[in-house]
Amino acid sequence: FLCISAATTIYFRCDIVLLRLLTHDDTTVGNYAAAYRLIEGVIMLATPLAHVFFRKLRVSLDDQGAFGRSFRLMLGVMSVLAVCATLGGLLLGPLILRLAFGDKYAAAEPLLAWLLASLPFILPNYVLTPGLVALGRERYYAAITILAAGLNIALNLLLIPFMAAKGAALATVVTEAALCAGLGWAFVKWGFTKK
User: What is the pTM of this model?
Assistant: First the structure.
């Protein structure tokens, strides 16, 4: 779990660090950070639901059928919430950005639109992750998370020099999509069987 925590911290924070190092533009970094704060707000709102889901998965662990039904229902709920949050963010995000940070962060609006594309991957990951942990597949989860952190660093190094903050946002979306695919693959490969 320490490896998972470290890798998650790296890929959640390296974009801002690399953006600062590679662009030397505090305004760009500030706009990106403001847009990312709204994404973090959505994640924070979804976290209690993820904890409830984890408990439900642990309780149903001994009944593979019940576990599978709960897992699919929870994945569906998070997917619907992700779509709603993305659409809501596209509609209300510019207003929320201006209310939270002021008109000087208007340039963050296009970055928010790019970052919102990561939500359809981030929120389902909040079901895939506890599902893997409940099934005792922490090592697989750790390996996928470490790979995602490496991918995120590489993409940021590749994209930021050419696209600046949009490159960091694109790296975030691709990393979250890759993480989601990696986590989902575990369920395709092993189903709902405990390790």
Answer: 0.93
